[in-house]
Amino acid sequence: MTARIAFIGIGQMGQGITTNLVQHGIFSRPLTIYNRTKSKAEDHAARIGNCRVVDTVEEAVASSDIIWSCLQDQGAVQSVFDNALVHNIRGKLFVDSSTIGPESTNEIARRVIAAGGEFVAMPVMGEPKMAHKQTLTCIPCGKAESVDRIRPFLQGVICRNIVDLSGEEPGTALLLKLMGNVIILATMETVAEVNVFAEKCGLGVRNMNKLMTALFPNPPHAAYNDRMLSGDYHRTTPMVEVQMALALAEKVKWLAHSCGASIKIYDIACDHLETVLEHEGPRGDAIGIYGAVRMESGLSYKNDPEPLD
């Protein structure tokens, strides 16, 4: 008997994941979806088909074996689980792909397991565009038998890579996600600085792009380099809102401070995110770090893209 799946949270990442679940996953149709703004869920369901939209979290939980959530913040996650745990959840698997704190994740896992359910923390690495292309990296973490229940819906369905933390405490996945965020912001900062340096010293971004393409032909370097040089960093609709990036950065910096770790390049990148927030507002794109570095070096925030071929 195939699983019945509900998905809670139809943001940009959730849209990519659910589209691929419907197109490539093997489960009992339709996919049940719930979103706080129901019209958004209805529009998405109409686009991808094989979905039914429900009015409450309780409906989603009651009719499903696997309840998968991808929510914007700690408050939304807490609200969903408070509503879900009011009812009988025995035997149901909860998978959470939201980015919240490790301790909060462990507390939710304890509540779910105490009520007879199963829990897997599964943050993902990658931008929403990567979710649509099935190129995310998933970090499933929890009891091995619980991770095995969600495994058929990962590689080749919604993601390219799995960092398997089976058997670890669920919050470990969120710790690793925070480490991944350090890598991501440090990469953005490095690519931004080297391109600005090349422009300022007269080498030019065209020549710099040739070296970047030769040394780092694959994401994330290649993806960030392309978005910066093409001017996509000052797009109208952000890939990753700078406000959200800064909220996650606060978690990273708190953790680093509490354990005495030095992450100076990350601190510099965060300062540049603050510049993006000031210049573009909360819906500026995090990749606007490039614009911040440009301004710091006496250039305009927005570049004047040129063909690189």
TrEMBL record:
Question: Domain 6-phosphogluconate dehydrogenase NADP-binding spans what residues?
Answer: 4-156
Q: Which Pfam families match?
A: NAD_binding_2
List keywords of the entry alphabetically: Oxidoreductase
Instruction: Please list the coiled coil stretches.
Output: none
Iron found in the keyword field:
no
- Gene Ontology MF annotations: NADP binding; oxidoreductase activity
Where are the catalytic residues?
K177
Q: Which family does it belong to?
A: Belongs to the HIBADH-related family. NP60 subfamily.
Q: What is this protein called?
A: 6-phosphogluconate dehydrogenase-like protein
Give the organism the record lists. Aspergillus candidus
Its lineage opens with: Eukaryota, Fungi, Dikarya, Ascomycota, Pezizomycotina
